[in-house]
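Lab notebook page, bench 4
Experiment: in silico fold of construct C2
Operator: M.H.
Input chain length: 161 residues
Purpose: comparison with the prior construct
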Amino acid sequence: MKQLNTRTLQEVRQSVAALRSDPLHKQSLSEAIAELSAEFQRSTGIVPTSKIQLQKSLDHEQNIAIYRIVQESLTNICKYAAATEVNIEIVQSPIHLQVIVEDNGKGFDVSQNTTGFGLQGMQERVLAVMGRLEIITAPGRGCRVEVVLPTEVNRPDLLEP
């Protein structure tokens, strides 16, 4: 029991350290997402399709938020979705940036997902950069994580659907 507690504490410390560190490691967002996609492919055998169109650079906080949201989405797909297809889109327009991670997996009932920290963490990250998060899913219908962030600072009015 003592060994289990020690190992669990070490794992928690490693997780916290990983969350605090800079996940981009001096890479561009596109390079970091490509690396995440390659890791996802190695662990699942699924080759995600990606479309990344960034006209101008984002601030560091936005880059990290987007990276972590894509990372959490892929983690959830790997753990729960039983998907065979995954699509990642990051498209920037003059007024907003849209991030979509979509799968064809088994989906879930959002109102029944109350125990995990993943979706809650995504929501907190999106709010920290003045964005909007929408999870579109239902049992048997896959899942679509959609994030919209303003590209012009202090313009949350640009996020209205």
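Observations: The chain is about 40% helix and 20% strand. The chain has one domain: 28-159.
Next step: discuss at group meeting.
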